[in-house]
Design a protein that fits this description.
- The protein is of the alpha/beta class and 366 residues long.
- It has helices at 17-26, 55-59, 76-85, 100-113, 127-137, 167-170, 173-189, 267-275, 315-335, 345-361, and strands at 8-13, 32-38, 50-52, 66-69, 89-92, 117-119, 144-154, 193-204, 207-217, 222-231, 237-244, 247-252, 258-265, 281-294, 297-310.
- Helix content is 32%, strand content 33%.
- The chain has a 9-stranded mixed beta sheet.
């Protein structure tokens, strides 16, 4: 254990369903300990840690090293600034803030106080996403050209009257929810959004439950992002599709659990796939070696492949593992000043910037 065996003390601000889930996940770690919780509702007070109804007293607790912010989005900026000024390290639930300007203010405050701060983009720590990132980086299927998200979310957890539907609190769907997927697209393309257009529809006045954005990235990749919060729980699905010069990949699940891949590659590409974890079960067919033309590139190809990869564990178990992975990365950054987290404040800022562009670009809101 780092830091001489001393656990880092975590204070969670916002102890609704997600706050409770993070606590259960982090309770299984040996290098951190949730020692304090803050929530405006005393009914949510756990019996075995310190409980506060106001943020200030939690921030004054000298045993709290890390503050996890799990409140509604419109409060993220102010609480993060308070925590950083109190010289706490800060992990913010997405989005980092409701505007790029506010997100940049968080970064400036973190740098001035020499504190670690990041945003809880757990998907970056998911094994399926890690596998996808390596395939893209190694250009196993050539250049990435197209990204398409189809997110059909359930309406059960966001009934009428929920703060989710209040744009002053949530910032609307692209900011409250879409930042996860804008971040994955940014990570995979290693490029920033250049142009965005968007449309939306309301189920009824005040409930904008279907949104769509098209994003052109600086490197020419085109991404489309559909989100709806309208389906029964049993019919909830999320599919992320990626098209390359030489094939396609689909990953499945809001917490991705499965990956399908097909296309052409060379011997090096096949070896990359065979070395990945979780293991991809590949059916390969040896081709006559050739040069394949796609867009402006020519690729050496030797194999036609079809493959599948699966984590093979329940979604919530994988979700908890992802939360532990980001917290381990966070602690590593605290203990070793030279360590750069996989998810940085700049990543959080870029996701907010893209989501803000999409929200402002909406041309139909009826």
């Amino acid at each position: 254990m780092a830091n001489g065996g001393k656990k880092k003390g975590i204070g969670i601000i916002g102890f609704g369903g997600f706050g409770e889930f993070t606590r259960r996940s982090w309770d299984e770690m040996d290098n951190v300990e949730v020692i304090a919780v803050c929530d405006s509702d005393p009914v949510r007070a756990p019996l075995d840690v310190m409980f506060y109804q106001q943020v200030g007293p939690l921030l004054a607790n000298p045993h709290v090293d890390i503050v996890s912010i799990a409140t509604p989005p419109n409060s993220h900026k102010d609480i993060a600034l308070m925590a950083l000024e109190a010289e706490k390290h800060v992990l913010v639930e997405k989005p980092l803030a409701l505007s790029e300007a506010d997100a940049r203010e968080i970064k400036r405050t973190a740098l001035r106080n020499e504190r670690i701060a990041s945003v809880d983009f757990v998907l970056r720590y998911n094994p399926i996403v890690e596998e996808l990132e390596e395939i893209v980086r190694q250009e196993v299927l050539g250049k990435l050209r197209r990204i398409d998200l189809r997110n059909y979310a359930m309406l059960d957890q966001t009934p009428e009257g929920h703060w989710f539907w209040n744009p002053q609190i949530s910032g609307r769907i692209f900011l409250e929810h879409g930042v996860h997927f804008f971040d994955i697209a940014h990570s995979l393309t290693q490029s920033s959004a250049k142009e965005v257009c968007a449309v939306s529809q309301e189920r009824k006045p005040g409930i904008e439950d279907r949104v769509f954005a098209a994003v052109v990235y600086e490197n020419g990749v085109i991404g489309t992002f559909w989100h709806s919060f309208s389906r029964p729980r049993a019919l909830e699905t999320t599919t992320f599709h990626f098209a390359f010069d030489l094939g396609e990949i689909d990953i499945f699940g809001w917490i991705p659990l499965d990956l399908n891949i097909w296309g052409w590659t060379d011997k090096r590409g096949l070896e990359v796939l065979q070395a990945l974890e979780p293991k991809i079960h590949i059916d390969e067919e040896r081709m006559q070696p050739a040069k394949a033309a796609s867009s402006e590139f020519f690729y050496d190809v030797e194999y036609a492949i079809h493959g599948k990869s699966a984590i093979g564990r329940p979604k919530m178990e994988v979700y908890a593992e992802n939360l532990r992975a980001i917290m381990n990365d966070f602690v590593h950054a605290i203990d070793e000043p030279g360590h750069s987290m996989r998810v940085t404040l700049d990543d959080g800022i870029e996701a907010v910037r893209t989501a803000e562009m999409a929200t402002k670009a909406v041309t139909v809101r009826t």
